[in-house]
C-alpha cells in the first residue's frame, strides 16, 4: 500500500492545515522531553516567531537506562495540549504502548512512533486503526525495507497519514551518535508515496552538525527536518549535549531560510 508503484502521486499528510508532502519543506522543533509548562512555552514562542506550526516534545521517553528521566507521561501530554491551544500549534509526541494510543487522540496532533518501537507490531497496528497522523522513525538498525514494512503495518489497518523519519542508524562509526543515512531520503521518496523527514538531532547527537545535516536533508529533497530545542540545554533532563538553545535555534532557522532561497 505504501509503494509508489501502487500510487504514483504523493500522499499529503494534513496536520492542522499544514499539508506535509505538498513540495514545501516543514520543520518540527521542540524539546527532547516535556519538562514543564514554562519550558515548552518558551520554545513554542520561538517556534511561533519563525512562522512554524509543528512543535515536538516527548512525554513518554524510551530511555536507554531505567534510572534516567522517563518523561511526565499524561501530564506531559496535557501540557502539550494546552500549548497547542494557546499558541495555535500542532504538537507531536511519542507514544510507546498500544494502550496509550486512544488516550493520545485527545491530546496531540501527531503520534510519533520512535526508533526503538519501529517493529513493535502491536503498536503499529494500533496506530493504524486511528484517525491521526503518525510520524514513524526508522529503527536503530533497520534496513530501508524493514522501515517500509513497518509503515505498511500502519497503512494496512487503514491509516494512510504517515510521515517517515530517517534518524540515523547504528554503524561502527563513533564520531556521531548514529550515522545519518542521507541517501535513505531519495530511496524512500522513490519507493513510497509518503513524506520523508530527517531528524538531525538523534542522527548526529552533535549540536555542531545540526545545521550542515539539515541543509543536506533539504537539498536532497526531504519534506521536513526535525531538531531539538530547549531553553537551557545544560539543565535538560535528556539529550543535554545536542539540543539547541533559543539563540542557536534562531540562527539555525535564519541560515536554513537563506539556504532554501538559494536552492
Ligand atoms: C525522540 O525523537 O524523542 C526520540 C527518542 O528519537 P528516536 O526514537 O529516533 O531515538
Ligand atoms: Mn531526544
From TrEMBL:
Alphabetical keyword list: Transferase
GO MF term set: transferase activity
Signal peptide: none
Protein name: Bifunctional 3-deoxy-7-phosphoheptulonate synthase/chorismate mutase
Amino acid at each position: 500500500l505504501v509503494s509508489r508503484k501502487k500510487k504514483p502521486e504523493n500522499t499529503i499528510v494534513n496536520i492542522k492545515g499544514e499539508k506535509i508532502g505538498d513540495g514545501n519543506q516543514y520543520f518540527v522543533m521542540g524539546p527532547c522531553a516535556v519538562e514543564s509548562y514554562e519550558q515548552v512555552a518558551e520554545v513554542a514562542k520561538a517556534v511561533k516567531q519563525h512562522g512554524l506550526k509543528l512543535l515536538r516534545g516527548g512525554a513518554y521517553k524510551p530511555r536507554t537506562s531505567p534510572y534516567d528521566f522517563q518523561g511526565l507521561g499524561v501530564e506531559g501530554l496535557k501540557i502539550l495540549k494546552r500549548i497547542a491551544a494557546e499558541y495555535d500549534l500542532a504538537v507531536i509526541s511519542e507514544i510507546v504502548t498500544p494502550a496509550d494510543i486512544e488516550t493520545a487522540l485527545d491530546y496531540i496532533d501527531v503520534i510519533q512512533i520512535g526508533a526503538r518501537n519501529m517493529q513493535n507490531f502491536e503498536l503499529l497496528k494500533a496506530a493504524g486503526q486511528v484517525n491521526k497522523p503518525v510520524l514513524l522513525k526508522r529503527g536503530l538498525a533497520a534496513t530501508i525495507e524493514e522501515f517500509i514494512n513497518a509503515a505498511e503495518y500502519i497503512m494496512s489497518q487503514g491509516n494512510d497519514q504517515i510521515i517517515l523519519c530517517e534518524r540515523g542508524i547504528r554503524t561502527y562509526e563513533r564520531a556521531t551518535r548514529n550515522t545519518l543515512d542521507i541517501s535513505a531520503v531519495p530511496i524512500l521518496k522513490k519507493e513510497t508515496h509518503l513524506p520523508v523527514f530527517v531528524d538531525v538531532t538523534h542522527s548526529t547527537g552533535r549540536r555542531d552538525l545540526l545545521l550542515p545535516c539539515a541543509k543536506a536533508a533539504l537539498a536532497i529533497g526531504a519534506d521536513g527536518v526535525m531538531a531539538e530545542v530547549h531553553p537551557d540545554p545544560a539543565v535538560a533532563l535528556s539529550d543535554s549535549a545536542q539540543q539547541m538553545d533559543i539563540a542557536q535555534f534562531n540562527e539555525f532557522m535564519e541560515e536554513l531560510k537563506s539556504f532554501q532561497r538559494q536552492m
